[in-house]
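Give me a protein, keeping tokens residue-aligned:
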Amino acid sequence: MPELPEVETIRRALIKDILGKKIKNIEVLSPKQFIGDKKKAIGQKIVDIKRTGKIMAIHLSGKLYLNIHLKMAGQLLYSDKNGQVTFTHKIPFVSGNSLPAKTTRIIIGFTDGSTLFFNDLRKFGWIKVSDKPEKPTGTDVLAKDFTLQFVNSLVHNYLKPIKLLLMEQDKLAGIGNIYASEALFYAGIDPRRKAKSLSESEAKKLYQSILKVIDTGLKYNGSSAGDEAYVLPDASRGRYQDHMVVYHREGEPCPNGCKGKVERTKQGGRSTFFCPKCQK
């Protein structure tokens, strides 16, 4: 699932691609993935694009929003042309590089002839027309409210393992499986430890490590690891997977040189990667 660096990278790209454009038409190929009345959005101009956690909110004129959640395998692909469009980069889950394809669920056309394609192999993602931006209840990692004091209060009132806390979007918005594993490694904290057991100095290391991995993820335009479901709007890949320290590194030597090896365990139905020798 795209996490904060991936969604923020897409947002920044779309700011350059579609800001100021007017929606000419919306073709809904998968009705369950488009919520609301598309007619309300047609004819509206894109005035801003915001993000909170993993959710994007495209602000339209007329005080409307197109809220977008990519979920597991959603993609937003942009072309300055309409009709059948061929991309330079290979599009995951698509035979050839042309859109629309079998995985295309929604097509947004603009009055200047450009197009935004919403692709989703698994059909979990959605676009929703609303009079307000959709937001998770948790604090966004890039928001001014994400402070050391906030992290201290969060961990000291949580009885479950710290890895699970980092992934709870109603508490902390934007972090998923990849960046939780990476942040805990940099902080030297065992992901299986109860959050409440962290000392103030450990909470500070975790806070700094979260900011570090998110910043690095953004620097490399997110991670196109595994099935490479995540791509930028031009279908190019992110490069953070080339800089991961423990995620998907099971059996490899610990990057700290402690002579331990990266192990994998299951937490909340998801894989966690860590070094048991130097993460305490």
Helices lie at 4-18, 148-155, 162-166, 177-187, 200-219. The chain has a mean pLDDT of 96.
